[in-house]
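$ run holo --ligand "guanosine-5'-triphosphate" --emit tokens
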Amino acid sequence: MINAFRRIPRDLPGNPDIRIIGPQSSGKTTFMASLARWPNAKLDSPIQSVNPFDDESGRLIAIAQDILENGLSMAPTRPDEDVHSLPLYTLLIELKPAFQIGNIGNNLRFQVSCREYSGEIIKDLRGGSSGINLSDYLDDCADSSGLLLLVDGTSREDNHYAQAFATLQTELNVRLIGRNKNLRQYRIAVVFSKAEQAQVWIHRYDIQKFTNRRFPKTKETLNKWSKTWRCPMNYFFCSAFGMKGSPATPNVKVQSRESGGTYAVIDNTSVWRPFGLVAPIYWLHTGKDDQRLRDL
Ligand SMILES: Nc1nc2c(ncn2[C@@H]2O[C@H](COP(=O)(O)OP(=O)(O)OP(=O)(O)O)[C@@H](O)[C@H]2O)c(=O)[nH]1
Ligand SMILES: [Mg+2]
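-- output --
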């Protein structure tokens, strides 16, 4: 029965249009599919629901069900020469009323829109030629209000990311200035994925120490970037696969480990519960960092 008394959610002001950029196999497609599916939420989660906005976005849930919930791994996203022909995914995320002090009754709602990029963009920023039209991709990024840089926390390719992000800054700089955009208003969330893996998990309460140890060059490049632009930059951990059991262990079957990172599938799909997926998106949208969304 439809609950006639359910109040209409209140839309949070902010900017929903972001781009997720990260190297190949850092987990971009899995991130979006897991967010759309939002499985096994805790009863006390501040998040009420995640819903696709349209049919194209609904495909993400089908991907999560057909692939991830069958214990399979996502295929690499096909690099498309033309950025505009990539699927655009839009999700509506509702937070419970108690999330905001002084808010009575209504759920709070915000939206995220994101194109499915492949990791080739990082290769090409380092001088590769994967066949994508890099310049068009960068133009598309400059249309967004912020970036989510997704880096596999288990990767050992710090140097590569530092180089790619330095070029990304230079290229976006030209474009944003050309469009009269205020660099200070561009938000950048740096998210380390696969944080259920031991080498990341042990640092889960100290992201600064983690970045200093595992990604010193990337961090230096990103620090310079945020200082030059005077733009907000924030760091997060996430895992699309999460933990299971008590004491908690990664809910993951690792398939292979390479210098670029970890390939894996979900171990027990019936208790699959991702963590850390909403915190960076909420921050990109509102500029607010909320510990409750970071809780593991
Ligand atoms: N351990 C672990 N593995 C993950 C996680 N998220 C994704 N993976 C694995 O990482 C690999 C790459 O995931 P994708 O989502 O295809 O990565 P992508 O960034 O979209 O890659 P491209 O499309 O090739 O650029 C797959 O083996 C995933 O199962 C996670 O949270 N933990
Ligand atoms: Mg992909």
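-- notes --
The mean pLDDT is 94.
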